[in-house]
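For the sake of clarity, the format in which proteins appear in this thesis is described at this point. The fold follows as a row of integers, each naming the local backbone shape at the matching residue. One such record is shown here in full, so that the layout can be seen directly:
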Amino acid sequence: MPLDYIRPLAVDLFAGAGGLSLGLEQAGYEIAAAVEYDPIHAAVHEYNFPYGKTFARDVTGITGAEIRSKSEIGDREIALVAGGPPCQGISLIGRRAIDDPRNALLKEYVRLVLELQPRHFLMENVAGLTVGKHRQLLTEVIDLLSDGGYKVVTPYRVLQAADYGTPQSRKRLFLLGAREDVPLPHYPEPLFTPRPIRNKPLPSDPVMPFGPSVSDALSDIPDAHSINELLEGDTASDVVYGTPSDYAAELRGITTAADDFSHPRRFDRSVLTSSNRTNHTSTSIERFDATTPGDVEPVSRFLRLNPEGICNTLRAGTASDRGAFTAPRPIHPTYPRVITVREAARLHGYPDWFRFHVTKWNGFREIGNSVPARLGRAIGSALLKADNVTPTRGATIELGDPALLSMNASEAEKYYGIEERVIPQRDRK
């Protein structure tokens, strides 16, 4: 489908499967282009956002002019460039941290902002970038943006996803700014009082209402371990869901939040996706079953989720060149097993139409590396408010080709015309 040019255009760099893309679309942006290095994750993004252009490319090898020419953007104004560039280097005495090769992607992000000249930019990163030696990186990024004609909102802030309606504790740095001729935005104010992670009582006098709980997110989803279809794949048909909470009703597409301006997707609400079962030993099942919700199982060190609390931060796990280990997953609050990809997606704010790669390893990486949708929505709304834009709801659209969700690395590279392997071969030892 062609872009909706009534909606302000956004470009998502380091897009992954599209958590930030989703939040920005919900705020009222049109995701005109996305750039993602890993072709498997790029294919998943293309499936979920079929109306924009997905580039399976390294940002170091793409220019702003190419993004414009090979998408439908052309010479139209870009409202927002967003992205979360990884940074792994540390400041060295007598050396600019931004010049450390391990921090090259930060510099590439700035380059593309300056080439694309959006009205606003959004840079997301780990909270640890604000402390110790790593603060030098932020200072240098801000200096480069300022030299290029962009103002930065100061002081910058670390935002907690649970403050904005996500049933998960997740803190991330967001750097916001505007072109010199464009008003600066304000950071969104918290909307909810976060629930505790562990088995602790709720505060008795909250200033704001409590956000959704683990139970709100999960209680209507049928138990994957009771469905034989999920032994062989990640999808089951004609399942019976329970009564949804208000939070779950939105994610199932039964209701629509007043501040959700995304494109509704056509999908079968009776199909359970991203729910491939995990086989546990009988010993593990016994240990999980004996663990009180809100406590840590002492052998695995997995947290058993507190149904009236929120989830601990969901991690991505290690990359394929480091052994391809899945990050520790929380134990379900009701069933003696770890949570599924779909259940993790619920705890992250992904709607049920949103699909992930069919393998658990890739699915959990796509969730763990992403920005929770409701947090992205809150920030996007604040940016549009600064631009005095009244959001318009997107038209209903079809999702992409399901084959995009099951490609292995070689197939995804072939699909995108990548001649040399860009992601190291997965080590299955």
Summary: Confidence is low (pLDDT under 50) at residues 90-95. The longest helix spans residues 373-386.
